[in-house]
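Structure ticket #2291
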Amino acid sequence: MRSPQFIQLHQDDDAAARAELAAGLQAQPAHVAPKFLYDALGSRLFDAITELPEYYPTRTERAIFESHRAAIAEAVGRGRTLVDLGAGNCEKAAAWFHALAPRAYVAVDISVAYLRQTLATLQQRHPRLPMWGVGLDFSAALHLPSELAVGDSAGERLLFYPGSSIGNFTPAQALGFLRETRREARGGALLIGVDLVKARPLLERAYDDPLQVTAAFNRNLLRRLNTLLGTDAQVEDFEHVARYDEGLQRIEMHLQARRALRLRWPGGERQLSAGERIHTENSYKYTTTGFGALLAQAGYQDPRCWTDEQGWFAVFSAQAG
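Resolution: structure written out below.
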């Protein structure tokens, strides 16, 4: 039986992480990059969020995939190398193996260690399929390793980016990222999930659920700051805030100080007044027309779109000409 191959390109740099966190906390307004939300506990909390009735994106995208699987497979092409960006537990991509019959599967996540057990189990289920695990922080730049060129000629890659994670980028960043995916697709195709503009109450409930699971996910970032930067943050001093900015068409997540306080860490500090916020994440929403235009601007051709009946979520395919 085959064994997955692994390439670790991302290397943890504690000094760089501390510098990035300190700069963000001292900025006006204070902010922390959303990638720091995802430690082991944060990842488990996010998995729980996807099961909440208020959090529609995961189940709605899954329903679109199930309803239109044959048409989507025809649009993106069978027999390509399936490159799964932000693979996580790999289950979303694995659900496509039968329909797409990929020639190889490449799971990309920030840490190979996270992928090792998952890919070992997946390889047992699909013993003939070549599998790669690539440790890469593609939020900074998407450059797939040259080793993947073996048996992977131009035009045979399908880049898969489900779950509406494209919304974590600003529109300008999203355009840059889509141009990178087009380059890496090498004349192949892209399959991507996109959350759509909708009513404020529906969006805000999805990011501020009654069980407060999303609040726990956001406030866990304070523990991360204490661990990575050495801050003295107290979780109980902050509350979770999620709001939809209709002008920018984005959900914003913040940690709001319940009282005036001073965050201290070795070599720095930040004073926060009561009600002052630390901005932790954005999730931009698109119209189908707007995202189709963004794909065209990035150089993609023949965009196709599938949505649910309510028009809450969209799945796009496009050809990397």
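Closing remark: Residues 86 and 207 are 20 Å apart (CA to CA).
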